[in-house]
Amino acid sequence: MPQTTLENRTFIAVAGPEAEDFLQAIITTDLPSVGPGEAWPGALLTPQGKIMFEFLIARSADGFVIETDAASGDPFAKRLTLYRLRAKVTIAKLEANAATAFWDTAAPEGAVRDMRFAKAGVDLFRMPDSAQGTDVSAYTALRIVHGISGGAEDGDATDFFPHDLLLDRNGGLNFKKGCYVGQEVVSRMQHRSTARRRIVTVSADSALPASGAAILAGGKDIGTLRTVEGNTGLAVVRIDKAGDAMVSGTSISAGDVAVTLALPAWSGVEFPAMSDEAAS
Length: 280
Hints:
By secondary structure, this protein is of the alpha+beta class. It has 2 domains: 3-147, 2-Layer Sandwich (Alpha-Beta Plaits), CATH 3.30.70; 196-279, Elongation Factor Tu (Ef-tu), domain 3 (Beta Barrel). Helices cover 21% and strands 33% of the residues. The protein has helices at 19-24, 70-84, 115-119, 137-145, 183-192, 239-248, 276-279, and strands at 3-7, 9-15, 38-45, 51-60, 63-69, 90-93, 98-103, 112-114, 124-129, 197-203, 214-217, 220-229, 232-238, 252-254, 257-258, 260-262. The strands form 2 sheets. The chain has a 9-stranded mixed sheet. A 7-stranded antiparallel sheet has the order 15-14-11-12-13-10-16.
């Protein structure tokens, strides 16, 4: 069975009789929907609706365990503590500093199913582990081919709204759960259909440039390459601008490498045939 140990991960345990109510009121994930043995994506947002911390969250015996990138661990735990006030919860980092991912196999004991991959029809499980230095290229390639954002695994995610990373499509963002931090902004984006940036799969006939390269349509910047594995990668782009380029036959490139863009089929999102601006 394929497996990869993902280093630089942190696990935060939020436990206690009020753990679910406490988290439900501040994060984007709808916690009553999180079943046993499932790890759901989510985010803690700024009041302006942008991602402050991105994570996976799973139930534990006495609350929840949150997996995020190592650099976010201490500031995330501190932020949760600031929000705690008088809630009857405890917040503590666990010792594990890595996560092992397994796919194309039955769930190992103690592992949880990554629901981001489940949306794409892939059975992938993960569990806390210690760093082992294994090659992550197979896991990265699996994420890329299915258009699955890794949040901070793809670089700094704090410039993005949840829609940009498809949290509205992978179960990480709920519009019926009630108030949480940043909820008014993302709900307005949803109801007004103003989400224009989306994560896409990028493919080329030759090696792509490094992460951070601009995605260009006719020489104009429409997005940024985030993760690269050979001649494929993930980028966040303006899909209205990309759609215009596709309709008009305008070249799209990453740096000086010609590329093809594709939205994940599981997301149900499509490139607009023509933007409102072009149609008017």
